[in-house]
Each structure stands twice: as C-alpha cells, then as structure tokens.
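Before a computer can learn anything about folding, someone has to put a protein's shape into writing. The outcome of that step, for a single protein, is printed below:
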Amino acid sequence: MLAALDDASIPVPLPDTIVTGVSSDTRRLQLGEIFVALPGDHVDGARFFRDAEQLGAAAIVTESSNDVDGIIPLVQVRDARVALSRLAATYWNNPSHELRVVGITGTDGKTTTTFLTAAVLEAGGNSTGYVSTVDLKIGRQRLSNPDRTTTPQPPELHRRLREMVDAGNTHAVVESSSHGLRLSRLNDVAYDVAVLTNVTSEHLELHGTVEQYRLDKARLFTMLGRSHDKGTERVGIVNADDPSADLFLRATAGPTLTYGTSRHADLVAQDIQQSLEGIRFKVRHDQHQEELLLPLLGAYNVYNALAAACVGLSHGMSLPAVLRALEGFPGVPGRLQRIEAGQPFGVVVDYAHTADALEKVLRTLRPATRGKLIAVFGSAGERDRAKRPAMGAVAARWADFAVLTNEDPRGEDDVAILQEIAAGAVCEGAAEGRNFALVPNREEAIHTAFQRAEAGDLVLLAGKGHETSIELSDRSLPWSEADTARALLRSLS
C-alpha cells in the first residue's frame, strides 16, 4: 500500500504485513492499521508515535524528520494530509472510480442542494447515495452523521463510498466543504460533476482571506480536469448570479452549465412567488419553459433547486422530468422543517446558528406569518463570541418575541452566553420580559414559546436543526429538536 505514496522516504525495508486499514486518530486505531500523523495547530499527530506503536500500527506515516528509536517502520512524506487521502483511497480500492460522483460546494445551501440533487438523480433511475452534514445514504438506508462534520476524514469518506458501491449505488453526491478541499480530504475523490451554490465570507480562520477561500473552493472544479476517466463528460455547474462565477467557470476544463435569475444563464428562474405552500416560479432552458411549485420555504431555495436541476440535465434527464422530481421533494431535516401536531400555530425547525443565517430565516418567515413571529435560539459555547450580540440584535429587529436558550454551552456559563445575546437585543431597544426571555433549559424554552403562541403565530426553533446532541461541559445530552417539539405540542393539546 505504501507504494501508492510517490514521495515517501522509507529508511528501512518494510516487512511483509497485512494492513487492516488507515487511521489518523490513535483513539480509533486498530491492530494492523497504518497510522498517519497529521500536523495540527493545537495537537500534532507526531506526539502519538508511541501510542500507535503500542496499539500495533503496521506503519507510521509522518512529515517529521525526527528519528524515533523503536518506531519501525517510520515513513516520511512531504504532506501527511495528501498521504492520508491517497492511502485511504488505495486501501478501499478507489471506490469513487466505480461511481458517478457529484460534488457540491459553496458557503450556503450545500446540504439542501445535496438532498435535492440526490432526489433528482433517483427520479432519473439512478441509485444514489450521499454524504452530507445532516446524514448519509448508503444503498437505500439513511444513517445519521453523529460527528457533524461536512466532509469526513479520508478513511471514513472512502469507506462510505465503498459501502455505496457494495450496496448497489451507481451515483454519489458528496457535500464538499472548503475545509475538505483545503485540507486535502477530497484529493482522491474522482468527481464527475462539480456544483457551486454561492460564495460569501466564511472560515477565514482557515483560509486567511476571502480570495483564498474562493480559490480553495475552486479546487473542486480544477479537480475535474484530472479526475479518473470513466468515459463520461465531467461538468462544472455554477451559479451565474454569484460575483465569483467567472473564477469557477475558468477553473473548469470541460463543459459548464450555469443557472440563476439572469437571462444569460443556461437555466433561468422567472416570476418567483412565495406562499405557505412553497415557491412557485417558471424555469426556462433553451427554448423550453415549465412552471414549478417547489415545496420549500425561502426564496434562496430557488437557487438550490436550479443547481440540482442542472445536475439532472447534465445526466440527460428532460426538463419536465427534473421538475417533477423537485415538486415531490420531501424536504431536508432541520432546514426550515415544518412540525405539525394539530396545533393552531406554525412551528419550523432550522439550523440557523449565525446572525446572517438567523436574519435570513426570520426575513423568510415574516411574510408568511399572520400573527406573531416567535424565535427560540442560543449560541454555542467556546465558539465565536462576537456573533452573540449580533444574533440578539437580529431577533430584536425581526421577531416579535425571542426565547434565548442553550445551544451547545460546553464549558461556558450558560446564563452568561444568553446575557451576551440579550445585550445585542437591548441595544436595538428590546427589553427583557417585554421582547425576550432567558430560559437556559432548551426544552423549557420551547415549552415557553409554545405557551405564548396563539392561532396564526409562527414559532421558529433555530440553531440545532438536525443535530442529535447538546454539548455540555462533561457530556453530550441526546437531543432531537423535531421530536422534542412534537412531544411538547402533544402535551399542550
């Protein structure tokens, strides 16, 4: 297996041994696996050489040039992340070579577009698996994503792709984050289609600048030009309305498709109308025009649907067939997900956990709300503190009442977090008791919101979405926002 590493420096002859896998985490390392020591800002994998040796690693791959007595074999490489990707793909026999792989990247909309794309491809007769932030689909089975990572480390990713092949999937849709692209996790995925949703400013702690962030995302499109040849065209699909569109179009070596509201796009949305039923709009492609009722809330989902439609068109599906698939789309867990239990007011669960995302959701829901708009949300502990007052300010501007509560407090004082959020609301003229309440326990907070709600009101439960736990200082508390909401609604009735 180590022969797959072009730049490996192997100081001693390697013994014949059976390799049982590849891992970069000694907490999960199994006997006979190759341990790849990844560099890190806080913890360097080279610190765990002894642990890997004691656990029976078949070999250790590292960037370190330090000679460590007793570590045999120790294989030095120029880039451990690149090596991890190559070894993982090799161990699992390059499963992406046996699938048609669609990669979805962008700041917003990746998860929804992943689900929409899978639904379109399935409607076209393709057995489709996917890897997303919310969950995974292998064969016909959906599995939770407990790690919450958009792009898994290569050993996990290629294992999942191999499981898709073994389960009979012909296609895979892979949510491809900027982290995954920047950190070489996706290097050895043979993409056939690359999709851009949009690009705004995010994750600058990793990328450094907005321009570098764009370039890192554009790697997905560059990869099409050197992807494994499967005998089919490799296509780049780009949001023509995004200011960065030209960069991604130039990065694509093969054919491209564009979508948007601009008449110059290949697939164009026109006459967009929103209601509680969803979004109704006309779709034009070449000389054909069809009307679509997309059963989702939020005008931004027009773009997500167009992106998925382009994937269907790139696979030879007709426009009417693609639009029928979109009209039957059941939605994404935790993304503007309606909760119905016979209550006289509306309840929506969404993953919005930043000020921008919260504002976008509240602005989306406001026109559809006949009565009061009530928001339940918090902010994660040990994460960006600057967004907390900004979220409070957003709630004061767009919600009639807010219940501030725990999200994932971790090791921080939960009440202190809520007070930081409240400070932003107060700066906008809101007052505790009149415009917002602090209820640290999330279940009690949701109950409080439901008790305040009347017929015609709408309650937004934001921040947790599809997640399956609340992270405390010493443990993870099992959690389902949707199930909790349903149980509380039943108790009220």
Q: What stands out?
A: The longest helix spans residues 210-224. The mean pLDDT is 91.
